[in-house]
Write a structure and sequence with these properties.
- The structure is a homotrimer of 350-residue chains.
- Chain A is an alpha/beta fold and 350 residues long.
- Chain A folds into 3 domains: 7-125 and 286-298, Rossmann fold (3-Layer(aba) Sandwich); 130-276, 3-Layer(aba) Sandwich (Rossmann fold), CATH 3.40.50.1370; 313-344, no CATH class.
- Chain A has 12 helices and 9 strands.
- Chain A has helices spanning 12-27, 50-62, 73-78, 84-92, 107-112, 130-144, 162-171, 191-195, 208-213, 231-238, 245-249, 279-298, and strands spanning 40-45, 66-70, 97-102, 119-124, 150-155, 177-182, 201-204, 217-220, 256-258.
- In chain A, the strands form 2 sheets. Chain A has a 5-stranded parallel beta sheet with strand order 7-6-5-8-9. A 4-stranded parallel beta sheet of chain A has the order 2-1-3-4.
- The mean pLDDT of chain A is 92.
- Chain A binds chain B through residues 30, 33-34, 48-51, 54-55, 57-58, 61-62, 64, 67, 71-74, 261-264, 268-270, 272-273, 280, 283-284, 287, and chain B through 37-38, 40, 42, 66-70, 72, 74-75, 77-79, 81-83, 85-87, 89-91, 93-95, 307, 309-310, 328.
Chain lengths: 350, 350, 350
């Protein structure tokens, strides 16, 4: 791993080492307060994100490092007229590690082509968000002792919920994981995600009560308004599944309730005092996991960037792809866009 | 003191210890540059405030700590859809101390219910702003040797000026303080504030010149446009009282002129070079006072939050109260809202 | 040098010392990670500027110092109603050094009158931007061994391009520098700039290919849309000069291509892999140069501000001058505004 663009960039050994780091920091955080002294994190948020940004910045500060960057939507207009390439070349020359959040899919992958410092994808449009998956896995292992041989229920928006897609793909790398899919038919898990999780035992269970009764972990997610063109359909679906105290009365005593947060009503405040509610611990572990990641990335041997030949001409049909706004990017070739992973359009007659 | 929500949260001993700290830091600031190394301040500003925010952030940095957070109005929309409770639980898990500025009255009190780190109220609507009062008191004691046995003139907006209300209430805890109230009738000190300052000797003097002639300290405040619905009335009142060099010619040689700043004309620049003008020293002492406060709060024994049962149903009639937007908050009970301190509306027939 | 408002504030000895510092830091950056520990930079940006702001903030962090301030346009409205004087007096009391970016010409000079900490001008309207010139000179000396006896081509917007004006004035302080001016007639170097560069050997060459063939350094600049009232004229002129690979094929093998960045098409991405392209090194040296500057300024003996008598009444005719919005500023006198350097209007009959 030189950059963390997608969770699958982590090899098995890297995951193991990262988890050991996480445990060490969780045990003795004070030992790390000077670990990255004199080093800097460039925190580049082209769209707002309070939770992700602050967890990375706090992580760097707790390691003794410094943080600079921008956080407001205005910042995107600030660097307007400048290519992502030029911004990244400049800023990666100032920093030991870069976290990037960008509205365009594939932006982090594109940035990594030009960055002289490790790039962490803090969200590229609705595409990837690997440190959320990292947070989910360390939380599961920390609270259960291991990730394998697990029954997990995932509930809410399984269609657009990238957090769920990324988590399921990551779980597919472990043995003996079965996942129970709980969603409205309109928000069911897409086929292409199912196909990428062959190693998982997937079943569907429309009844949340039944699902909660038979799993070790219940992973709730919110329905995101921004995914819907039809406001009425959003209103109809958003609270289709609510994890009430009454449902939880019959659920296993050792169930773990997770949620990537923020929530939007699918877990009422009345549940927060339930000892099985682990989503606030999950948020706290997210900080420690990011500390472990920053430590790993800042200890990589320095690398020099082999500047790719400017290409352009990639025919990605995805209007949200970074190639739409950064035309100099090297072409993808192959059948899939190397940035946003959408199928490439082949011009007729070629 | 676990949190600083209102200046009266400080006990007599805590005030004494805090002042000693202040003096030590003022004498040897260099001794403290590593005092909070490895610790972090979460600076959460849901509405803009340059002076207060920067004085807290500079204070933390001068103690060797780190700062993260948000400062722009946009930030409130950033965390939109998330409750204050969820934001505070997450962020207080990342920080050793939290400073909160919020447009709603009672927000800091509400945040303190859920925070695993000490919360400092950096302004909750027009309600409280305890570190301004702390700044005023350390300045008075630093420049006069003591706070008691003092004649102070307070001039400007005594009706809406919360800084003045809070200062007078704090002064009422000392012996032998008499206050001369200088204001237009439309901006006179409200009766409920007078009643909460029984220990003060209050007199009214509409003539600034006469008042300035008979006091040890003259505390000027500005008239805030945002308090007026009628622009014409604001224009008529804003410069009703201006502290001119000509007035000061006849004032005592050892008078101290204070102002919480920013000013809006009530003290002309021509006064700045007068040796009695102490408002810029006051601003500088505000930084040292906040350093002392952060040191105290970060040295508190760690505490675990006893999550209150979500309540709701508090019938606070104040439209600017935090309970209007955070419905899960525990009910107040008693006659007064526990958050914004407004009288509670009792539903008819109860 | 107490403040850096204009590059000419640097004496010959100060330039030499600054460059030695720059070289030391470039050789052993790690030696400086605690150089400014416990010290703070106030980063005050009244208008957005990603590159300049981040390079200063990263520089301070790499020296072990802390950074606070504001960066968003909103910040100007935040401190609205407060004079620049009051803001600077307060904030310079919190910081060891202040970087100021402000839309009004002369703002940094005005701020320096009241600041108890060294002020660095990070851009005052279109007026001065001395650390860009510092960056240009250290880059030239670093890559060529010396600044004197140099043939430099400057291309693009020579009329409004303040970077070019400031660079040429600085180069005029060295021996044996000849400059080739490449621009459209509408964007030619103004006479008053030529007159201030007497020591330079200036020639005009409308053909970029010819110019590139005969110089040691080619300094490209972009045409800035915001300078044009007529959008059509901007479109016509913006890419009048483009440094193509084809032009570069015939240019000297040891040519150095510089650009202050950001660029807007005048240097195509295809040039970036050319070994003569030095503009990304230039950006990186800008960070080191600012580290050297901050070190020098923070090692100055403390100074106390002699508050100028508030004056006002300066009759500067420049609508973009800081005196237009800060009326209390001391009068200029003489023929030229002391803040924005525009000729003063003398009221008729005086």
């Amino acid at each position: 791993m030189r950059h963390l663009i997608d969770f699958t960039d982590l090899s098995e050994q890297e995951w193991q080492r990262l988890y050991r780091r996480f445990e060490e920091i969780a045990e003795r955080p004070g030992d790390y307060r000077d670990a990255l002294r004199g080093q800097t994190l460039a925190s580049l948020f082209y769209e707002p994100s309070t939770r992700t940004r602050l967890s990375f910045e706090a992580a760097m500060l707790k390691l003794g490092g410094g943080v600079f960057g921008f956080s407001d939507p205005a910042a995107s207009s600030v660097s307007k007229g400048e290519t992502l390439k030029d911004t990244i070349i400049m800023i990666s020359g100032y920093a030991n590690v870069v976290t990037l959040r960008h509205p365009k899919e594939g932006a982090a992958m594109a940035a990594a082509l030009y960055s002289s410092a490790p790039v962490v994808n803090a969200g590229d449009g609705g595409h990837n968000h690997p440190t959320q998956t990292l947070t989910d896995l360390v939380t599961i292992r920390r609270l259960r002792g291991s990730v394998g041989n697990l029954r997990i229920g995932v509930c809410g928006d399984l269609k657009y919920g990238r957090t769920v897609h990324s988590l399921l793909r990551a779980l597919a790398r472990f043995e003996g994981v079965s996942a129970v899919l709980v969603s409205a038919p309109e928000l069911a898990l897409p086929g292409y995600v199912k196909r990428s999780c062959k190693n998982l035992n997937l079943t569907e269970e429309p009844d949340l009560r039944a699902a909660a009764g038979g799993v070790d972990i219940l992973y709730m997610t919110r329905v995101q308004r921004e995914r819907f063109t039809d406001a009425a359909e959003y209103e109809r679906l958003k609270l289709r599944y609510t994890l009430t105290p009454e449902i939880l009365r019959e659920a296993p005593k050792d169930l773990l309730i997770l949620h990537p947060l923020p929530r939007a009503g699918e877990i009422p405040e009345a549940v927060d005092n339930d000892p099985r509610a682990a989503y606030f611990d999950q948020a706290r572990y997210g900080l420690t996991a990011r500390m472990a990641l920053l430590l790993e990335l800042c200890s990589l041997p320095p690398f020099t960037v082999k500047e790719p030949e400017p290409g352009g001409g990639t025919a990605c049909g995805n209007p949200r792809c970074i190639t739409q706004t950064e035309p100099y990017l090297p072409a993808s070739g192959g059948g899939v866009c190397r940035y946003c992973e959408h199928p490439l359009v082949t011009p007729p007659g070629v």
